Amino acid sequence: MKSNSTPLIGILTASKSDGTIAGNGPLFIEIQKKLISLNGISFVFIPEEVETNYINGYSYSPEENCWKKGSFPLPDLVYNRIPFRSSEKDEKSQWLFAYLQEKKIPFFNPCFIDKYKLFQLLKKDSILRDYLPETILVQEQYELLDFLKKFGGIYLKPTQSSKGKGIVRLRLNGPSEIQLKGINKQDSYPSFTHFWEKWAEELFKKQYLAQEEILSAEYEGKRFDFRILAHGNQDDYTLTGVGIRLSQEQEITTHIPTGGRLLPYHLFQSNEHDEFFQTIVSNIGKSLSSQFGYFGEFTIDAGLSKTGRYYIYEVNSKPMSFDETDIEERKIENLCRLFLQLIDESS
């Protein structure tokens, strides 16, 4: 750590279309409170406010319960919480990432994750590949039809989306009928050709992947998933917490914003589950960091099939807040510990 100085963490976000600052305000406040207790400080900023040797940003004052605008020196570490893929890709953000690298300022998480690139990356790991549902990129009509015929049911997902947005399930009903189900939509098509005519433009515009449908284990007649939170720790990764998400009104996703229900992990806890989590957390973290740059935190959506087999569905680089307060508290602690650890290592 820099001598005679307070560790300074820059939390990077983006502005909304109306010019106001976007991002998870409650998270930023809790980080600031925790850092102050550890003799550190944080400020929130956007790429447009970065000058050559200082940054205009906002720091939260717990005493006055308000945000204060100010100019800050270049931080010791930057925590990337840009909430929009488009903002992360724009010219100013890309310039900033290169500038941080040039200044040797530790930086995480480097980027949103493309779902298909993630699948290709995890498939290279001899342990992780056994937990991946079979997946293809949607490119050819007949290739997708063959894939659907092989499994009877598949999920279609945009490669660049989160929170279950855009996901639909296709099932083959009888010799040719296609049933489509989404979070808020339901359709049937007399043949695959009819489906393709209606959907091809959307599938290519948003770049979809297709994934075999896994018949999920159930609890009280509803499918459930594991939501796993992990953080970097020294040269490895630590399991911060596991939440259970149970489907409710619709069974396409178990996300809370789309009607999923939260259950405590202790209802499901087993040594086998715990061992699975520890294995995948470490391997996924190391794979991501070796490919994209340092990932200090991520969440994993994983599940268990009716036959008792584990699956990894998705990995998210910008975790949403957990509704479980104990997991959220550990998240803040592990994040702030990691900030200080990385600053220490880089000095």
In short:
GO terms for molecular function: ATP binding; metal ion binding. This protein has helices spanning 25-37, 85-89, 91-102, 115-123, 141-151, 192-205, 271-292, 325-346; strands at 8-12, 41-45, 54-61, 66-73, 77-80, 107-108, 135-137, 153-158, 168-173, 177-182, 186-189, 208-212, 218-219, 222-233, 236-246, 261-263, 297-304, 310-316.
Biggest sheet details = 6 strands, antiparallel
Highest-level CATH class of the largest domain? Alpha Beta
DSSP strand tally = 18
Strand order of the largest sheet: 7-12-8-9-10-11
Count structural domains: 3
Which band does the percent of strand residues land in? Answer: 25-35%
Shape: globular
Looking at CATH, the homologous superfamily of the largest domain is ATP-grasp fold, B domain
Mean pLDDT across residues? 91
Protein name: YheC/D-like protein
GO molecular function: ATP binding; metal ion binding
Organism: Neobacillus bataviensis
Pfam family, one: ATPgrasp_YheCD
Write out key terms for the chains shown.
347 residues, Rossmann fold, ATP-binding, nucleotide-binding, alpha+beta, 6-stranded antiparallel sheet, ATP-grasp, 18 strands
Notes on the protein architecture:
The protein is an alpha+beta fold and 347 residues long. The protein folds into three domains: 8-110, Rossmann fold, CATH 3.40.50; 115-132 and 216-317, ATP-grasp fold, B domain (D-amino Acid Aminotransferase, Chain A, domain 1); 135-212, no CATH class. It has helices at residues 25-37, 85-89, 91-102, 115-123, 141-151, 192-205, 271-292, 325-346; strands at residues 8-12, 41-45, 54-61, 66-73, 77-80, 107-108, 135-137, 153-158, 168-173, 177-182, 186-189, 208-212, 218-219, 222-233, 236-246, 261-263, 297-304, 310-316. Helix 1 (25-37) crosses helix 8 (325-346). The longest helix is centred in the last third of the chain and has 22 residues, at 271-292. The protein is globular. The model has no long low-confidence stretch (mean pLDDT 91).
